[in-house]
Design goal:
Strand content: 15-25%
Oligomer: single chain
Largest sheet: 5 strands, parallel
Distance between the termini: 12 Å
Radius of gyration: 17 Å
Bound molecules: cytidine-5'-monophosphate
Strand order of the largest sheet: 2-6-1-7-8
Number of helices: 9
């Protein structure tokens, strides 16, 4: 039997990655952040001086997507006392740790344009599927017997046969507040943004993600929708873990 697969999709800052990491930790599953792949390709393009919003650069960006080596390493707590702490994921682009660089405002601003390029999505899809296939079978991960993946098209395209599909939604104001808190916690050195700007940026990104031609952000027909506006992280993690147990 193949490992249990959980697909988590939803708009920007809906709490996907925090929820997905906590669910993976609670269940002993592996975790793959697919947004990190698009962020790495965006960073690679920007650092080569390519303007991602210029359509004539699409081929160059697609080539970069194909040739880039992207690696993820999530560190889970194993002791029961620390099981409620948040696992951390390190992201590597061509062996360089870019975990912080891919979260900057500049990358966030351009990533949806990059993610709308068809051949970029094909290249990322291949890499994500390869990682999903190997992460579970690797020696170092032999203890992990399931997979949680988060993104925008996991339930619809990447893992269409996932055993559980979750679609997280939350009010955009609530999401903007959470994003600001997250930035404050991470000790980001970037200029402090006001909530209106953050909210507008999230809404702009969602609009691009929802209306693009290739694999737009949408709830899969068989996904369970979870509105997290009024839920705590613990509450949403519990709900998903229970649903996994019910289906296992
Ligand atoms: O999840 P995160 O905010 O890091 O994703 C960054 C961007 O990558 C999203 O706004 C979206 O444009 C793109 N993305 C995507 N498909 C995925 C994951 C992310 O198009 N599966």
């Amino acid at each position: 039997t193949r490992p249990f697969q959980v697909a988590i999709d939803g708009p920007a800052a809906s709490g996907k990655s925090t929820t997905a990491k906590m669910v993976a930790q609670r269940l002993g599953f592996d975790y793959i952040d697919t947004g990190a792949f698009y962020r790495c390709v965006t960073l690679a393009a920007l650092s080569k001086g390519i303007d991602p919003s210029n359509p004539s650069q699409a081929l160059q960006i697609s080539n970069l997507a194909e040739s880039s080596h992207i690696g993820l390493k999530t560190i889970f707590s194993t002791t029961s006392a620390s099981k409620s702490s948040l696992p951390t994921t390190k992201v590597f682009l061509d062996s360089k740790d870019v975990s912080f660089e891919i979260r900057t405002g500049t990358v966030s601003k351009h990533v949806s344009a990059v993610a709308a390029i068809g051949p970029v999505r094909e290249a990322v899809l291949q890499k994500v599927r390869d990682m999903g296939a190997t992460s579970i079978s690797q020696e170092s991960n032999s203890g992990r017997d399931g997979l949680v993946m988060d993104g925008r098209d996991i339930g619809t395209v990447v893992l269409p046969n996932a055993d559980l599909k979750i679609f997280l939604v939350a009010d955009s104001r609530v999401r903007a507040e959470r994003r600001l808190q997250e930035l404050a916690r991470s000790g980001s050195k970037e200029e402090v943004l006001d909530i209106e700007t953050v909210q507008k940026d999230l809404e702009r990104r969602d609009e691009l993600d929802r209306t693009r031609e290739v694999s737009p952000l949408r709830k899969a027909d068989d996904a369970v929708e979870l509105d997290t506006s009024l839920l705590t992280i613990e509450g949403q993690v519990d709900a998903i873990v229970q649903e996994v147990h019910r289906r296992q």
